Every structure is written in C-alpha cells, then in structure tokens.
Amino acid sequence: xxxxxxxxxxxxxxxxxxxxxxxxxxxxxxxxxxxxxxxxxxxxxxxxxxxxxxxxxxxxxxxxxxxxxxxxxxxxxxxxxxxxxxxxxxxxxxxxxxxxxxxxxxx
Amino acid sequence: xxxxxxxxxxxxxxxxxxxxxxxxxxxxxxxxxxxxxxxxxxxxxxxxxxxxxxxxxxxxxxxxxxxxxxxxxxxxxxxxxxxxxxxxxxxxxxxxxxxxxxxxxxxxxxxxxxxxxxxxx
Lengths: 107, 121
Known about the structure:
The structure holds two protein chains of two kinds. Chain A is mainly β. Chain A is 0% helix and 50% strand. In chain A, the strands form two sheets. In chain A, strands 2, 4, 5, 6, 9, 10 and 11 form a seven-stranded mixed beta sheet that branches. A four-stranded antiparallel beta sheet of chain A has the order 1-3-8-7, with no helix packed on it. In chain A, a hairpin with a 3-residue loop joins strand 5 and strand 6 (53-54). By secondary structure, chain B is mainly β. Chain B contains no helices and eleven strands. Chain B has strands at residues 3-7, 10-12, 18-25, 33-39, 45-51, 60-62, 70-75, 80-85, 94-101, 110-111, 115-119.
C-alpha cells in the first residue's frame, strides 16, 4: 500500500499569511495526487486534482505542485474561510489512501 | 444541483450488520465510480472501497480493513449506492460518506453529508 505523510500536522497562522503544506508518498505516484479541504462537521471538498489542477470554483490563492513522491499545497494569502484541515490523497493505485491531515488554525 | 444523501446509520452491537444507502441526483450516476469513505470521531479520512461503473463491469475494490466483511453495490436504475456491513467491530465506528468521481485517476468530485455508524454494546 502507498503511505502518505503530511507536514506539518498542525499549523497556526494569521490572515494574509502564505502557507505551504507538504505531502510525501512512500513510492512514486506520478501526478495522481488530490488535495481536499475539510471544515468541522462537513464533508471534504475537492480543491486540486492531478497535483496541480485547480477545481472549478476554487479560489486562485490555492495552488498545488509536485510529482513522483513529493507534493505541496500552497495558499498564497490565507483568508478567514481557509481555516480547516487539509488532506492529500493518492489515486494512483488501490487501496486509495489519504494523508493524516494538516489542521490550519488561527494564530 | 448535485446531491448525495446517505441514510441507514445508527447504533449496532459488535458482530451485527447494517446497510447504508446513498441516493444520488443531479449528475449521471451510471457514468460515475462511486466510493465509500469513513472518518472515525476526531480522526482522518479512510477510504473504504468503490464500485466502478457499468462500462467497467461494476467491479469493486476494498480496503484491507473491511475486505470480506463489507460489500459495495449499486443500482443505476435507482441512482443509488449501498454499503452492506457485516461482522461490525467497534473500530468501524465512524461517519460514512459516499462520494463519486467521473474520471479514473482523479479525486472525488461529489460527497454526501455523511451518516454516523456507532458500533457499541
């Protein structure tokens, strides 16, 4: 199975900050990496497909990059509605797996 | 508007069974791969399994943690997805989400609101 790790696991930040979250895969997954945002009590929301393709309707302050085993999610200027938990997911092979999550909290 | 609405969650004793349903609307259900994802209280997301679409013979895949105990099925005529859960364990306690995607190699475009399954004596 492909294991995903995320760093940091917790991040305290302020509105306007630039954030970078890293996701690492235990083996190469090409660009088959997805990012989700989940707010408390809600279902996850798809942000980015194929490592860097922004979903329709997702603000352009979100961006993704990487391939192979290392990926990043960047929020260029954190907004109040961005405080949430972010998960990466590999869709390269079964079983599909998620990273453990990165919680972004208000400083 | 795309909607996925799960139902069937509740309290069940260890060793018991439960069947979850997911009613879909607002998209071409039959074209989509349909998945189940769960989230234990205060924990992260865990993929449970999927059923592929008709073009891919409705084949299924499962996480090791549920294989042999859970069965995923679908009824395209009813735009519905199902999760039959047998031999439930306390570790199966979670919110269960159904989700859908159109394209292989991409994430899950659509998600339901989730239904809580509690396995406890």
